[in-house]
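Here is one chain, start to finish.
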Amino acid sequence: MADVALGKDKCGEQRLVSLPLSRIRVIMKSSPEVSSINQEALVLTAKATELFVQYLASHSYRHGSGKEKKALTYSDLANTAEESETFQFLADILPKKILASKYLKMLKEKREEEEENEDEESGNEEAES
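Its structure:
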């Protein structure tokens, strides 16, 4: 367990986690179901979060296009979230980047499609009457 100590605190002593525990506590307390947080649970949550982020980053790096540049890019993370079944739950949080013009075009097409569907439905209702 000695190799788990990653960061150092202000006094120079080694810590078990690198993430700021105070921030994690605030995030955990933001849930209405949580009334109090045990210090051990806080540290374990921080460590689990660090391990998850490390796994996500290494998986994205290995399977991404940034490997040639020796860099991890946002698009690598977004591709991992979209293509990997394990990380599918992150697809909404890490969407693929698209140009604003492309997005506006998609919105316009969607509106036109909805209008067509509404016209068809109202036409069917009139025919039935």
